[in-house]
Amino acid sequence: MTTHDAGAARPPRTSVEQHRADVAALLAPLVARRPVERLPLAHALDRVLGADVSAPVAVPAFRNSQMDGFAVRTADVVPGRALPVVGEIAAGSTAAPLAPGTAVRIMTGAPVPDGADAVVPVEETSVGRFGADVTEVVLGAVPAPGAFVREAGSDVRAGDVVLPAGTRLAATRLAALAACGIAHVEVVVPLRVSVVSTGAELVAPGERLGPGQVYDANGTALAAAVRAAGGTVAFEGRSGDDPRVLAGVLADAAALGDLVLTSGGVSQGAYEVVKDVLGPDADAASLPFALRDTSVEFRTVAMQPGGPQGLGRFRGTPILTFPGNPVSAQVSFVVFVRELVAAAAGRVADGARPRRRLDHAVTSPPGRRQMLRGALSVGGGVRVVGGTGSHLVAAMARADVLIDVPADVEALDEGAEVEVWEL
Amino acid sequence: MTTHDAGAARPPRTSVEQHRADVAALLAPLVARRPVERLPLAHALDRVLGADVSAPVAVPAFRNSQMDGFAVRTADVVPGRALPVVGEIAAGSTAAPLAPGTAVRIMTGAPVPDGADAVVPVEETSVGRFGADVTEVVLGAVPAPGAFVREAGSDVRAGDVVLPAGTRLAATRLAALAACGIAHVEVVVPLRVSVVSTGAELVAPGERLGPGQVYDANGTALAAAVRAAGGTVAFEGRSGDDPRVLAGVLADAAALGDLVLTSGGVSQGAYEVVKDVLGPDADAASLPFALRDTSVEFRTVAMQPGGPQGLGRFRGTPILTFPGNPVSAQVSFVVFVRELVAAAAGRVADGARPRRRLDHAVTSPPGRRQMLRGALSVGGGVRVVGGTGSHLVAAMARADVLIDVPADVEALDEGAEVEVWEL
């Protein structure tokens, strides 16, 4: 073939929204039905309740004093006339009924005795402050019935739902559970994601780099992005260009994870190992085992970076294949997967993307939605960092957002409003 | 004493801002000078760099191809005339110099051979896509010198600072470090905080509640709040009302933590165990050991909830004593400590508090700054939840913010702007 038929060779491009919808459909059962696990409160911070939590006891569990002072019967109080003080009730103790015509010293949190219907703070009495023995107390006014008395169940009644399913367990919410005596909670198990980097050129960070070799940034990037989105990393693997090796790595990844993410091996080159295992021209007979329930569709998404994408199943487990360029792989995760991982973890997101004004004009090639790396300005605007080169991991690291330039837009003026994806 | 001298007994109140400043001064050396620790990248998500990180190698480490295509000498290209294809360079391999008048197949990421000064993507050539053997290629136009060639160091030069000290390690930043071959980072060690709950009435969540007993919510609440703010929990303990026991618990707390937080035992009652160990009337001879370098000042802060506060040192370690009421303790942490724990972890906060409009009128007792529990409305306003009772942990759990009503304000109209503290 020596004719110049580049146009004919190009497959039709899938829109970003279509690919997002297809990925969401693939993962929908995983997101909708999450298992729950039981954790002690100290391990549940920021996790999401998998079920309503009801209070096993009332809070407060008993009628108690809101202040250090004297418990009295309001009917017995005459301003200026002394009441005999017949004893003391400390927090953590029990209380006998209050005899008519008497008062009792009472500490904050201590049970209010039967008969008493108000507490008067010590500093509002003739006693002023607790010190030596107190035998009598004079009140300046008749307290209101119920004053400084916390009724049992006034905060939470026994059986009340303290927190509903779906609640994210902030510190204040863990405190409420602890106050009800709850020590363990059922929380949603986050999506377990396996991450596999492919490419003969890849070397693990920290190892020695040989000629032609490149450090694997995608393993670190995708694993961290999964964790940041609320998922857990089930498996991390790496494979060169041998389809037999990759098939074995993917088998582990699929067995351990709810979802497999691969990077690399999906371009137009001669050695595209992911396509060699999962693509239409894969040589099934060369693999170490049969690929039951395995089917991946490769497509080109009208997005830059991150055009070459694949989605399907490997041995029954959903799999998404990202391009190998570190910026492309990271953008792919943000645009196609991040919200689903967060949703599976029970985190609610409204899906709205904020709008910012461009600090400078931007041009964009037509036909592909650009996800430019952007940094926020002090004034609230956004500017492109590092240009459009998809290999610029340092620029990606300086970016706060992705600037979303629609496929049909070729130029934007300074001050134009753009949607951004927060990083 | 039978006269009614309540007014005289009340100590002067410290302003919230003064107490914040005093706590900040106490913790300033801890916040300003944090130790660093060395962690693998996979454990460093959201941590903060303790030192600049420089690139040990350039990224890319060698001149390489940005596309699957053909490497050529632009001076040799004549549109429409075939160039012989003399071989192939895969990613991860090495490349011999390109002979004049020839082209070589090259894969994305593969080294561009000496002599070649451009790459032409395969789909823009007569070949269209890689498949069977290719012996010659026809180009439609002369490529620009440098086209689709990534120069060594074009992303990061060897020795460049990739990320400066103080950078929070988002996934994109870990990716950049991995791309440079960096496997470990020096990150700031967060503040190690010990949390001690006091009170004879306290029982651990999950245990059986006896008469007069209360579940300890503060241990859970403060430990979770410390973690959410970026600190670590060094020690969690609980003590009843025996000063000897509390002194022993505090000794462990102070030995293991950079900071000790206590709750309870600081009010006006007869059994205030924290004051019994640390207050001016403490009986040092009754304690199991001498309290060297121990001094705590108790004061009443003009804040509600959370008035009774103490700050100082226990055996040299900074200590803050919060009131025992769970809402009071949580508000105390938010208002006095949270920003300092975050700052010690290297997290930058501007300290600004957003303003919201009240959905309804609010009245407030004079002389004390109110920190009301507030929930945000869909319309962007804020409303009080659960009233002002400081024991309402369930209301605190429903709150999104604390509504800050200044001490000199007695009433606010619907629609009035208020500062809020985000929870």
From TrEMBL, chains A, B:
Catalytic activity, reaction form: adenylyl-molybdopterin + molybdate = Mo-molybdopterin + AMP + H(+)
Keywords: Magnesium, Metal-binding, Molybdenum, Molybdenum cofactor biosynthesis, Transferase
Pathway the protein acts in: Cofactor biosynthesis; molybdopterin biosynthesis
Ranges of residues in domain MoaB/Mog: 194-343
Enzyme Commission no: 2.10.1.1
UniProt xrefs under SUPFAM superfamilies: MoeA C-terminal domain-like, MoeA N-terminal region -like, Molybdenum cofactor biosynthesis proteins
Obligatory cofactor(s): Mg(2+)
Family: Belongs to the MoeA family.
Identification of the protein by name: Molybdopterin molybdenumtransferase
Annotated source species: Sediminihabitans luteus
